[in-house]
Amino acid sequence: MSKPSNSTPAKSTPAPVRSEKDRVYIFDTTLRDGEQCPGATMTHEEKLEVAELLDDMGVDIIEAGFPIASDGDFAAVNEIAKRTKRAVVCGLARAGMKDIDRAGEAIKPARQSRIHTFISTSPVHMKWKLQLEADKVYEMVIASVTRARGYTDDVEWSCEDGTRTEHDFLCRCIEAAIKAGASTINIPDTVGYTVPEEYFALIKMVRERVPNSDMARFSVHCHDDLGMAVANSLAGVRAGARQIECTINGIGERAGNASLEEVVMGMRVRNDVLPYWTNIDATMLTRASKLVSAVTSFPVQYNKAIVGRNAFAHESGIHQDGMLKHTQTYEIMMPEDVGVKQTSLVMGKHSGRHAFVHKLEELGYHLAGNQLEDAFIRFKALADRKKHVYDEDIEALVDEEIATAQDHIKLVSLTVIAGTRGPQRATMKLDIDGKALIEECEGNGPVDATFNCIKAMVPHDAVLELYQVHAVTEGTDAQAEVSVRLCEHGRSVTAKGADPDTLVASAKAYLAALNKLVARRARNNKLEPIAVAERRIHSTDAG
Length: 543
Hints:
The chain is α/β, with parallel strands linked by helices. The chain is 39% helix and 20% strand. The strands form four sheets. Strands 1-2-3-4-5-6-7-8 form an eight-stranded parallel β-barrel, surrounded by seven helices. It starts with 24 loop residues before the first strand and ends in a 5-residue tail after the last strand.
């Protein structure tokens, strides 16, 4: 929708006064922890594309992968290290020397490099996973950090399952890691078990008890098993941590990680109670979300905070009325702040009269009095039967009879030959502005052949976005209802056709969508002559 004019326009969130002590470094692990999400594996080229975008948007540290995991992971980390211009490129390594050597080799070309080494420190992990005594784990902490320092001055050490580690042992290991040369200490909530108050107290305790804690930056890495990863991460920052480990869209193991876009915008929008700042260009958040969703084939839930499809969409009539009067009534940030073009008022059964009138004006209609009231009543009746009311549904409600009378393209007849022997072939006759045209086309199936006939007689640039068939009732004689959505110049129209013959219903639906495109152009005073294939025109009384 067009941005409504308000007496007091909504303003972008003001930039905070920036003090270095309040800077929070963003450590993105989309390419490592995020890719470990089952089914989220990326190709080499996709990893490079994501890494480039992360670098451009201001991510401070890119954890590019786990080099010893595979040759592919090593190659990706190594190539990202070569290409990255601003961010620190980090490789993950367990406490073993081979892991660390492999990571050191992978990050070698980077302008700024880091090795992130870790080992489990909780009783349950040491007993069942590592099968090692605490003293042995302590020795490995020192040895692994020392080895990593041989490759880079920037070493991060993590105590896996830190939130379930005994405090005395945790402090002892952190002190040793810093003494061995670790400049970043990460205390992960590996299994998403902690809660904000508890995590705040843990980070605060460690920073106060470890004698050399002032020599390292503390980091938080929270998982979302209980849905508190973002809240826990921000609690850690409040306790003094200055690095957040997160992923685009919150992807990751099991329920995922803290969401980068949520922690960034949480600090930006609520800077009054979270007076911290990051180097992230927030206007690139939506773009990053869409890229990661595309390369992993993981859809973003519609109601996902910040980047979900509904994050800036409003259907409730009360909300829409408020939004039209002043955007800040129901939006705490501007969509442009995170790279979304504009707010969307979704028309549905909860929409009110104010939003309906606004939508009509957008579509070029100006109704008043009884005409408006009748249209609104019919709109509400339709919205009760449909989940979503598209623009073209409203157009039909307002001017159904006129639209039908003004149809330029009409189906006269259709004959289709289909079956296993092929090829499938359709013969169609159309009436286009009083001229009868006949065309015969083959296709990859009977529907494709039918649509090819229409395209041959009515050349157009519209793209078929949706073709859907369902039976109106039960039984083999049920009427088929076909939905077709066509997109022309960025605007989509949807139309339906019904007939006991599915192919006839398909042709009707496609032609109805074409007619809506023609009607839309006419209403906008941009009507162009319909392109017609000239080679098979007959008189209106032919056949």
